[in-house]
Fold these 4 entries.
Entry 1:
Amino acid sequence: MKLPLLGADDIAALGETGAVDALEAALSGGLDPEAAPARHHVDVPGGELLIMPASTGQVTGVKIAGVAPANPARGLPRITGSYLLLDAPTLVPLALLDGAALTTLRTPAVSALAIRHLTGPVVRHLVLFGTGPQAYGHLAAVLAERHVERVTVIGRNQDRAEALAEHARRLGVEARTGRARGAGEVDTADLVLCCTTSATPLFDGALVPDGATVVAVGSHTRDAREVDTTLVTRSAVVVESRAAALSEAGDLLIPMAEGDFGAEDIDANLAELVTGGGPGGEPAGFAGPRFFKSVGMGWEDLAVAAAVYRNTAS
């Protein structure tokens, strides 16, 4: 049997809303992120190899992703990889997907699912840190979920920041670039997206208004973080799973090492947010900011890959 190869166009055809809906359906259907297999990390000469398995009663899959920090300087993508989707009962391969394109769609979709449950229908001011593929993907995902009135783009490279702001304007959103560290920007935001490779906090967490939502997706290592301890301790904290966050999320582990945050301070995982079963009450009703930290998990790739496969077969 010839194995179908599903490329970037096939994956993009699912769309941002289709990907978010696939993730929400998986969680509403009873998938437990806490029971999902852990990600495996392997150091290799070019950077890091990530092996991410997952399974449900219907489908099984594994993503092999490469993280190559030197690639952008070579004109190559920082994230590479492939995804193998299999039939769960027989383990017969169903399709091979472009792993980088899958990640580009999946990661913003996870953030957008959290935003679906943490914010109102209108985002008056979105502050977006980052200018790479995930920044573009997150902008598209948020626009698919919410009406955004204006966007401020903040990046280390001013030309790339202006290019993303221009892209937002072409999508019909008022947009401009802002100053590094967000001074004078995050204090008026109701949604802040952190899509960078920074290992140190991007802004002063004391500036974020009560009721605003902050999403951080850029790091998955214990010693790197995009937000500071102040933001974490002020916020209702939501994670994909407690197990994954407490293993990989420097945004939480560094405040824990400082003695200012504990595992018990996590208000909900993503399944609890979606189903309303969180032990800490409803984060959207919390008086302070809401903070969603994502590190990326294999079940998310599986849910979106299966949806892409079904979409191409229909």
Entry 2:
Amino acid sequence: MRKRLRVAAAGTAAATLLIAGCAGGDGGDGQGAAVNRGSLSGRVEGSGATFPGPLFDRWTAHYTGRVETAARVDYRAVGSGGGIEQFLAGTVDFGSSERPLGPGELDIAADVRGCAAVQFPVVFGAVALVLNDDELDGMVLTAEVIAGIYDGRITRYDDPAVAALNPGLDLPAEPIVPVRRGDGSGTTYVFSHYLTTEVPFWAERYAEGTDLDWHESTLDGEGNEGVAATVRERPGGLGYVNQSFALADELATARVVNEDGTPVAPTLEATTAASEEAEIPDDFQFAIDDIGGEGYPITGANWIFAYTCGYDDATAALLRDFWTWTLTDATADRHAAELGYAPMGRELKARVVEEIGRVGESD
């Protein structure tokens, strides 16, 4: 039976007041009570998921161009696996991934740095199934069919399993060319986690992770950009990418049947509906599973990793302010919506802002 989970409604009064001060109608320049605007300087470096790459590019450009012009925030979209590796190695100031750090990784982080790591979600997003053929836009897929395609069991668009889901669609008698990520990827984690929770044979053979031992029939692409490009260039191509890349490349997308049996397209509204079913614990380790209603079923979050120590004062202040700004500024939310990401609700933001305050607190 599907479990209905809701976002926990917690948060301190102080964090709520901070949001009220920072997210007012200032036209997006981030004026608020957190810092004196124009007082921050220095540079922070981060790396990780390509999933939020377009949004992080937009956020950093606006923040350093209009909010704190003496500051620099650099982010390299190297994939979630690389982001986790570089964060744990201490070569970046912050990391990013589509899955939270597990207990073992948090232990490694504490050993490397000598203090606890901090991790918090900043945005929700959908993983879209994109198609080479515009005539197939809106075709219906289930978790079982998607798993069958990536396992080499379903090889043609006119396969009976696909045809049964799409009785009104003229399916081409051509091979399906499944495309997947060739690098360690949080997008792969969200995609494979979904299939693992829904399809028993997938859980047994492939399980979930940022990189898998893929079937030999699949082609690989580097980053969301590489998958989107390969799908666009290869007749019969089908791949999974962050929703923003599907929008940017104007690719056809499939509707995916959710837990209530409803075929849902990867829209912002459907992503928001899915995110609202997530129960967010105090440690911010969660997954978005068993999505029904109007929710799109392949939905995930992006986490940021930082430390409670080891930064100089300027770096710690910049990290805290930048990530607080992304969550509390109206323009930051508008950027997210324009690119197809779902901003978090006000009460969850208050909890996350409180957690961001722990960055560098032990210095």
Entry 3:
Amino acid sequence: MECTLREWRLEDAKELAALLNNQKIQANLRDGLPYPYRKTDAEEFILTTLLTNRELSLAIVVEDRVIGSIGVFRQENIHVRTAEIGYYLGEPYWGKGLGTAALKQICQYIFETTDIVRLFAEPFSDNISSCRILEKAGFQLEGSLRKSVFKNGEFKDQQMYSLIKE
């Protein structure tokens, strides 16, 4: 099974809503996503993405079926050549190497087409699967950010990973 990355399409809304209507996924994402996640929420996200950040927020697709999302977010000011990367996969697609494949694809694209030299990600420390995806994609662990977030009523640690353009 191979994955590709592509721009979001409005017709992806139903599949996106089904993926994000999962508390296991939302538990490892930043706050701000509604739960339950409805088709109208997905449509709003897709329209906003297409109007504002088209090339850096992409659908992860297998055989034209949306299985997740990946995005790269350029930082500002003195960090302008750095970008944060975030991603998720639908639960049926966990453990199949698709997250690593998608991450490698977008990193290659960013390094080849932009002036960004540093990509970073900050998964929650207890999200071992996401940490493994980053490591398999060549990211290096820089350290732990202790009690750096407050999620679902508790403080959580994060891991700081980065990938540097050679």
Entry 4:
Amino acid sequence: MGDQKRARDEEFQSFVIGCWPGLLRTAFLLSGEQHAAEDLVQSTLEKVYVAWRRVSSADAPEAYVRRVLINTHARRHRRRLKEFLSPKDDSGLAHERPDPGDQMARADSRSALLKALAQLPPRQRQAVVLRYWEDLTETQTAQAMGCSVGAVKSNAAKGIAKLRAIPGLDEMVTTGGRK
């Protein structure tokens, strides 16, 4: 019994090491704060560890964990939705420690883009983050969000439209952040 538990723990540890950067990036883009993102990933992984047998036997364990992350985030902020949608202090956005290999980390428009992303309603933010940062298909995004493909298309389109409507942001994106 001890050897099985040890093997399962090692398998879980390997999984966490492999998916941590992606989960942290997604959590950061959803929450807008580095520390909140780390807490969100930690809480998600605690839930996943308890159900690791079921998760590890899933067809796509990382997609399963991403869904748990999104659900955990939604549950945390459901009660404080109004406060969450209009943050008074966005200084946490400047404290993210980007992955050195992350192309987005090197963009000049990163700060402006993250502030704009924080202004989106949660479902639109989720759709934009999963479709365009995580590069998931519409079907994968719908599965992760627990909604239809049509809802993903609608939320992503509305989110992108709101991002494009922000003065100055559209020019940075169309010029690739170059002036």
